[in-house]
C-alpha cells in the first residue's frame, strides 16, 4: 500500500483553500488504495478536526503567528508558517518518527511558506529509507523547489508553460493549468447534467470559509436593490468567520435568501445557480467546470494574474481586487446581467472536473487498467488540449486527420462520419486520459484493402505508465470490429474490406524509436499480425506494432485466420493454428518465430519443453511458414541464454524481446536477409501441445528436483498443482 504524507495548513490568515484541495487529492489517492497522513500545524482555524474525520493527522506544535498587516510579499507567507523552515522541517520529521512512519512513497507539500530549503532538509532526512518523491502544489512561481512533480492548476494564458523556468530541477515534471484542477469527483459527474442557463433567477455568494475582507456583506448589500427582489440567493460562510453575525443580519432582511453552513461540497449550489459572486480561489475551477458565469473579486495578490488572464479570455467577469471593489460596482454588474443574461457556455472548456483523478494516476499509475469508449462532442476540448500538449500541430491535426475547413462543428461532424472513428481512453474511474483517432481512406482502386491514418493522443499524467501498448491493442481491436472483414453471411458482407492502420506520429512517440528509413526495402508494407486471442504474447505485440508504424508500415492485428485478407507480410506470432495454402497465398511472406533449432523442436510450446529439460541456451528462429508444420526456410536466429532461475514471466520477456528484434531485423535488412535464407536440414523432432496436466507436481519429490517444472507454470492458465489425501492442491509461484 503506497503511503502519501501531506504537509499543508489552514488558519484564519491562510484560509481553508490549501487544506481543502489537499483533502480532495487525498480522497482520490485513498480510493486508489493509498494510506494518507496529514501534517498540519495547530492554530486557530486549522481544520484539523475536519481532516481527522477521514484521515490520520499528525498535529505540529502550536506556534504564535506574526501579525501580517504590515508585511508584504514573501514576508506574509513566512509569517503563515509560524516558525523558520528549519524548525518546521524538524517538527515534521519528529512527528513522523513518533508515528513510526519509516517509509513514504510521496510527500505532498501545499504551503506558500515552504520552498527548496524545507524540501531539501526533509528529503535528505528520508534518504536512508525507501526513496520518497515530492509533489509540490503551488500557484506563485516565486521560489525554487526540489520537486519531482509540480502542480499549478491556474491559468495564465500563453505564459502558463513558462512560469517555473529556472525554479525546478531538470527532472521535475510539470502539470500546469486547470486541466489538472483539483475538485471533488461530483463535479465531473454533474458536468454533463447541468442544463444550459437561459435567465438569471438564482445567485450564489461565496468568498471562502473565512472571508476576512467581508465581501459577503458587500455582495448582499448590492443584492438589496429592489431590481433584484425576484432573485433567490444562496450564501455560504464558515462559522469561524469574524463577520458571521453581520451576514446573518443581512440575510434575515432579504427575501428568498438562505445562509448555508460550511458544506461538504458546493456542487449542488453551483449546479442550480445562474450566477456566482465570489473569490478567485480554487472555487473558480468548480464554477467553470459546471459552467456557472461568475462575478469575481481577487481576494489575494496571487489571484490577480490568473483571474485577469481568465477575464481577458471571457471565462469570468472580474470586478477587481478586494480593497477597491464597492457595493456600487457589484450592483452595476448585476444590473447588466439582469438586463441581458448571457451564459457564455462556450467559455467553460478549461476543466472537466477530473484533475484529481489525473494527478492520482500520475502518482500511482492506472488502477487496474484502461478502457475505450466512443468519443463524445464534449471531448473536443480534450482533443485540442492533448494535441497541443504533445506539440502535434493542431492545424495539421485538423486538416490531415479531421479534414475540416474552419467549421466550429468540425468535431461533431467528424463523430458522425462513417469513415472516422474516435475513441476516448478512460481509467476505471471514468477519467479521460487520451484519444485514438482513425481516419479511413480507400486504397487506390483496389477493392480488398483500405488504410486508416491514426493518431494517438495521451495525457501527460499517463505518459510514463506504459499505457501506449494498451491503447494500441484496444484501439486496433475496435477498428477491426468496426471496419474489418466479416466472414459468413451474404456475398456483400464477404466483400468487406480489410483495414490497415498507420499512425501520424507526434514527437512524444518518435523520440525513442528513430530508425534509418533508407534501410527499409518494403516501405510501406501492409502487415497482418495473427496471434491467438488468449496468448501471453498479446501484451507485448503493441510494442512491435508501434515500431512497425514508426518504420512507415500499415498494420492489422487479428486473432482469427478467417479474417485474413491480401497484404504483403503476415506475422504468425504465438499462433497455434496451421494456415492452408490458400490462406498463405494471401501474403507475399508469412513469417513465424519459433523457439528451437529447427528442424529440431517443431510443434508447440518449444520454449516450455526445453526449460523443463534443463536447457540453458535456446535458439529463437524466424522462418517462412509453409503448409507443412514449421518446415519453411530459415531467415534469422539468435540465442536466449538462461541462468536457470527465470520464472515464466521472466523468460517470456526474453522470448518477446528476441521475437521483436528478429522481426524488425527482417524488415530493416529485407534484401540481405531474404537472399541468405536457408532450408532446414537435419533430424526432426516434435513437441506436443501444452496441457494443464503438465503442471502436476509429485509430492514425493523435492522442490529442487521439480524446480524446472515450477519455472514453466503459469499461475493463471497452467498453475502448479498436486494431489494429496484425495484432494487437489494448487500452488502459485513467484520470485521476490
Q: What features would you describe in this structure?
A:
This protein is of the alpha/beta class and 736 residues long. It has five domains: 3-176, 3-Layer(aba) Sandwich (Rossmann fold), CATH 3.40.50; 188-347, Glycogen Phosphorylase B (Rossmann fold), CATH 3.40.50.2000; 370-512, 3-Layer(aba) Sandwich (Aminopeptidase), CATH 3.40.630; 515-690, Formyl transferase, N-terminal domain (Rossmann fold); 692-731, no CATH class. The protein has 25 helices and 28 strands. The strands form six sheets. The chain has a seven-stranded parallel sheet, sandwiched between helices. It has a six-stranded parallel sheet with strand order 10-9-8-11-12-13, with helices on both faces. α21 links the parallel β21 (567-572) and β22. The chain is elongated and about 100 Å long. Residues 487-495 and 506-520 have low confidence and may be disordered.
Number of helices: 25
| Biggest sheet architecture | 7 strands, parallel
Percent in strands = 15-25%
CATH architecture of the largest domain: 3-Layer(aba) Sandwich
Taking the alpha carbons of the first and last residues, their distance comes to 17 Å
From the helix content, strand content and strand pairing, which structural class follows?
Answer: alpha/beta
The CATH H-level superfamily of the largest domain is Formyl transferase, N-terminal domain
CATH topology name of the largest domain, in short, is Rossmann fold
Highest CATH level, the class of the largest domain: Alpha Beta
Number of strands: 28
The number of domains is 5
Please state the average pLDDT score: 88
* Outline: elongated
Radius of gyration: 31 Å
Oligomer: single chain
Strand order in the sheet with the most strands: 3-2-1-4-5-6-7
Q: Give helix % range.
A: 25-40%
Uncertain residue ranges: 487-495, 506-520
Amino acid at each position: 500500500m503506497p503511503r502519501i504524507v501531506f504537509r499543508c495548513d489552514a488558519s484564519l490568515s491562510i484560509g481553508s483553500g490549501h487544506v481543502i484541495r489537499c483533502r480532495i487529492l487525498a480522497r482520490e489517492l485513498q480510493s486508489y488504495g493509498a494510506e494518507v497522513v496529514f501534517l498540519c500545524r495547530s492554530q486557530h482555524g486549522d481544520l484539523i478536526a475536519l481532516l481527522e474525520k477521514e484521515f490520520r493527522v499528525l498535529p505540529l506544535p502550536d506556534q504564535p503567528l506574526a501579525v501580517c498587516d504590515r508585511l508584504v510579499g514573501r514576508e506574509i507567507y513566512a509569517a503563515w508558517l509560524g516558525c523558520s523552515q528549519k524548525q518546521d522541517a524538524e517538527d515534521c520529521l519528529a512527528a513522523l518518527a513518533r508515528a513510526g512512519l519509516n517509509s513514504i512513497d510521496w510527500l505532498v507539500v501545499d504551503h506558500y511558506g515552504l520552498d527548496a530549503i524545507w524540501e531539501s532538509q526533509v528529503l535528505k532526512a528520508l534518504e536512508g529509507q525507501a526513496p520518497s518523491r515530492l509533489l509540490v502544489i503551488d500557484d506563485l512561481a516565486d521560489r525554487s523547489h526540489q520537486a519531482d512533480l509540480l502542480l499549478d492548476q491556474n491559468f495564465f494564458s500563453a505564459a502558463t508553460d513558462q512560469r517555473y523556468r529556472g525554479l525546478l530541477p531538470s527532472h521535475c515534471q510539470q502539470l500546469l493549468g486547470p486541466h489538472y484542477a483539483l475538485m471533488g469527483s461530483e463535479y465531473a459527474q454533474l458536468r454533463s447534467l447541468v442544463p444550459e442557463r437561459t435567465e438569471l433567477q438564482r445567485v450564489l455568494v461565496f468568498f471562502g470559509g473565512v472571508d476576512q475582507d467581508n465581501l459577503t456583506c458587500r455582495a448582499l448589500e448590492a443584492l438589496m436593490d429592489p431590481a433584484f427582489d425576484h432573485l433567490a440567493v444562496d450564501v455560504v460562510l464558515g462559522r469561524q468567520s469574524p463577520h458571521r453575525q453581520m451576514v446573518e443580519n443581512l440575510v434575515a432582511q432579504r427575501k428568498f435568501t438562505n445562509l448555508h453552513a460550511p458544506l461538504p461540497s458546493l456542487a449542488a449550489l453551483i449546479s442550480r445557480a445562474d450566477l456566482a459572486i465570489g473569490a478567485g480561489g480554487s472555487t473558480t475551477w468548480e464554477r467553470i467546470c459546471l459552467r456557472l458565469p461568475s462575478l469575481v473579486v481577487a481576494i489575494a495578490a496571487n489571484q490577480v494574474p490568473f483571474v485577469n488572464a481568465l477575464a481577458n479570455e471571457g471565462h469570468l467577469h472580474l470586478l477587481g481586487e478586494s480593497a477597491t471593489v464597492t457595493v456600487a460596482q457589484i450592483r452595476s454588474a448585476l444590473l447588466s446581467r439582469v438586463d441581458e443574461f448571457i451564459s457564455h457556455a462556450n467559455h467553460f472548456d478549461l476543466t472537466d472536473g477530473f484533475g484529481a483523478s489525473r494527478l492520482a494516476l500520475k502518482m500511482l499509475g492506472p488502477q487496474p487498467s484502461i478502457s475505450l469508449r466512443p468519443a463524445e462532442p464534449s471531448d473536443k476540448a480534450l482533443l485540442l488540449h492533448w494535441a497541443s500538449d504533445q506539440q502535434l500541430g493542431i492545424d495539421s491535426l485538423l486538416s490531415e486527420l479531421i479534414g475540416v475547413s474552419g467549421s466550429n462543428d468540425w468535431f461533431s461532424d467528424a463523430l458522425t462520419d462513417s469513415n472516422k472513428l474516435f475513441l476516448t481512453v478512460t481509467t476505471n474511474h471514468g477519467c479521460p486520459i487520451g484519444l485514438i483517432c482513425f481516419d479511413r481512406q480507400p486504397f487506390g482502386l483496389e477493392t480488398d484493402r483500405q488504410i486508416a491514418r491514426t493518431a494517438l493522443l495521451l495525457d501527460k499524467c499517463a505518459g510514463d505508465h506504459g499505457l501506449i501498448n494498451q491503447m494500441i491493442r484496444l484501439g486496433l481491436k475496435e477498428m477491426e470490429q468496426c471496419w474489418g472483414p466479416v466472414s459468413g453471411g451474404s456475398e456483400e458482407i464477404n466483400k468487406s474490406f480489410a483495414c490497415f492502420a498507420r499512425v501520424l506520429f507526434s514527437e512524444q512517440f518518435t523520440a525513442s524509436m528513430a530508425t534509418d528509413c533508407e534501410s527499409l526495402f518494403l516501405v510501406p508494407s501492409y502487415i497482418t499480425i495473427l496471434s491467438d486471442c488468449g496468448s501471453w504474447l498479446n501484451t507485448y505485440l503493441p510494442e512491435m506494432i508501434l515500431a512497425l508504424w514508426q518504420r512507415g508500415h500499415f498494420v492489422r492485428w487479428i486473432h482469427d485466420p478467417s479474417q485474413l485478407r491480401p497484404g504483403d507480410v503476415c506475422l504468425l506470432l504465438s499462433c497455434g493454428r496451421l494456415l492452408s495454402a490458400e490462406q498463405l497465398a494471401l501474403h507475399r511472406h508469412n513469417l513465424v518465430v519459433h523457439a528451437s533449432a529447427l528442424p529440431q523442436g517443431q510443434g508447440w510450446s518449444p520454449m516450455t519443453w526445453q526449460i523443463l529439460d534443463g536447457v540453458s541456451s535456446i535458439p529463437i528462429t524466424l522462418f517462412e511458414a509453409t503448409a507443412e508444420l514449421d518446415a519453411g526456410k530459415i531467415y534469422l536466429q539468435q540465442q536466449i541464454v538462461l541462468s536457470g532461475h527465470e520464472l515464466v514471466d521472466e523468460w517470456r520477456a526474453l522470448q518477446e524481446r528476441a521475437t521483436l528484434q528478429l522481426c524488425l531485423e527482417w524488415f530493416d535488412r529485407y534484401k540481405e536477409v531474404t537472399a541468405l535464407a536457408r532450408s532446414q536440414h537435419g533430424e526432426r523432432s516434435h513437441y506436443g501441445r501444452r496441457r494443464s496436466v503438465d503442471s502436476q507436481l509429485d509430492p514425493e519429490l523435492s522442490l529442487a528436483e521439480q524446480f524446472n517444472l515450477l519455472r514453466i507454470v503459469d499461475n493463471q492458465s497452467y498453475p502448479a498443482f498436486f494431489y494429496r489425501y484425495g484432494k487437489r492442491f494448487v500452488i502459485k509461484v513467484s520470485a521476490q
